[in-house]
Design brief:
36% of the residues lie in helices and 19% in strands. It is built from seven helices and nine strands; from the N terminus they run βαβββαβαββααβαβα. The strands form two sheets. A seven-stranded parallel β-sheet has the order 3-2-1-4-5-6-9, sandwiched between helices. Strands 7-8 form a two-stranded parallel ribbon. α1 links the parallel β1 and β2.
């Protein structure tokens, strides 16, 4: 059983991950803004605070041994570069600092596939947080999905023929694998596996690895 502290628990992935962790016997504390407590499932402890300011939550991380960073701008696109820097980057920095201060044993970070031909601001922010985890000597699992297929997130199915063509071309095969699509179920299964099997040092899971996880 792990003691988990999570940011972004009311988001697309977080709201689905928390019930699974609770059902498997883990204890979860989720950072929420005031008024959002009711969106959390029964059994999850709501921690009021601001993900952009560690002073509002650092003293409430204990007794967690695992920190899951899920804060991110919804529906990323190139037009949201400013938001990535104001929200994703700041919250990532604050979370890493808070986890360092409270001696978190295992940090789980949802990054993004790298390198990629688009979304440069988004990728740069994720890469900076990855670097911070390395510089601070964390035991960390870094997940690098490209796009997660699930309810409301199904338009990339139209790209499957293109992925098939790339997979048949030696020059594009690596790109097709690294920027491949994963399902929400695979994403959740990978996160649960990370919680239940903490990393020793830095562990990177790219799309091909995440596709191997299931419940």
């Amino acid at each position: 059983m792990s003691q988990v502290f999570m940011t972004g628990g009311t988001g697309y992935v977080g709201q689905r991950l928390i019930p699974i962790l609770l059902e498997r016997g883990h204890r979860v504390r989720a950072l929420v803004r005031s008024g959002s407590e009711r969106t959390l499932p029964n059994g999850c402890v709501a921690i009021q605070g601001n993900a952009l300011d560690k002073s509002t939550f650092v003293n409430q991380i204990a007794p967690a041994d695992t920190f899951i960073q899920l804060v991110g701008v919804a529906h990323p696109s190139p037009s949201k570069a400013g938001q990535f820097k104001k929200i994703d980057l700041v919250s990532g920095r604050e979370s890493v600092a808070a986890a360092k201060e409270t001696n978190i044993r295992h940090f789980i970070y949802v990054s993004v596939a790298q390198p990629a031909p688009m979304m440069q601001a988004y990728i740069e922010v994720r890469a900076e947080i990855e670097s911070l985890l390395r510089m601070n000597g964390f035991n960390a699992t870094i997940l690098r999905p490209w796009y997660v297929l699930g309810p409301g997130h199904r338009w990339p199915y139209a790209l499957l023929p293109l992925y098939w063509v790339w997979g048949c071309m030696p020059s594009k095969r690596d790109l097709a694998q690294r920027l491949g699509l994963i399902t929400l179920r695979q994403m959740l299964a990978a996160l649960v596996n990370a919680v239940e099997n903490p990393a020793d040092g830095i562990r990177l899971w790219e799309v091909p690895q995440m596709r191997n996880f299931d419940f």
